[in-house]
Amino acid sequence: MNKSFKWFSIFAGILGIIAGVYMISRPASSLASLAIYFAFVFLFDGIAEIVKYFSKENVFKSGWVLFHGIITVLLAICLFSGTFLNLIMFIPYIFTIWVLFSGISKIMLSFNARKMDKKTGNLLLVLGILGIVAGAVMISHPIMTGLLVAYTIGFIFIYNGVTAIIFALKN
């Protein structure tokens, strides 16, 4: 893996972990006030996924990585362009879409990864399943998600941050 890409992935992971810890430690904080920060985290994560896809040294090349990167960048653009009221109303749904696509892309990537390294493939599979479960809970209980969105988002940011760091350090 390219050394500069590795540090970019680690940086995106650290941003995700910081955002997650903040959301869990301050659940009463306004989601709209953090929307721009979330947009930057999504933007860095999406760009990292796109760069990972086009990296010549990427052994786990999958169209799902590119797809996840594009969806994440598009969600970042949605967050950057939303009004205050839109951000409050749609942040749970934007995160739900991101979590579901993140989980699906990790599962699809796990099948390719298992061919090269079974342990990494299994880890990606478990993380992907956790992402889909979290997304399903979020979409099936929108009122609960609205009330507990800070904890849900905090968990997902930490999950994606740890995944990005593990993947960067693994390669």
| Biggest sheet features | none
Q: Unreliable runs, pLDDT <50, ≥5 residues?
A: none
H and E string? HHHHHH
Structural class: mainly alpha
Strand elements, count:
0
Residue-averaged pLDDT, rounded? Answer: 83
Label the overall shape.
Answer: globular
Summarize the structure.
The chain is mostly helical.
Main features:
single chain
Notes on the protein architecture:
This protein is mainly alpha-helical and 171 residues long. Helix content is 88%, strand content 0%. It is built from six helices and no strands. The chain has helices at 3-25, 31-54, 63-81, 84-116, 118-140, 142-170. Helix 2 packs parallel to helix 4 and helix 4 crosses helix 6 (142-170). The chain is globular, with a radius of gyration of 15 Å.
Topology:
Layout: H1 3-25, H2 31-54, H3 63-81, H4 84-116, H5 118-140, H6 142-170
Helix pairs in contact: 1-2, 1-6, 2-3, 2-4, 3-4, 4-5, 4-6, 5-6
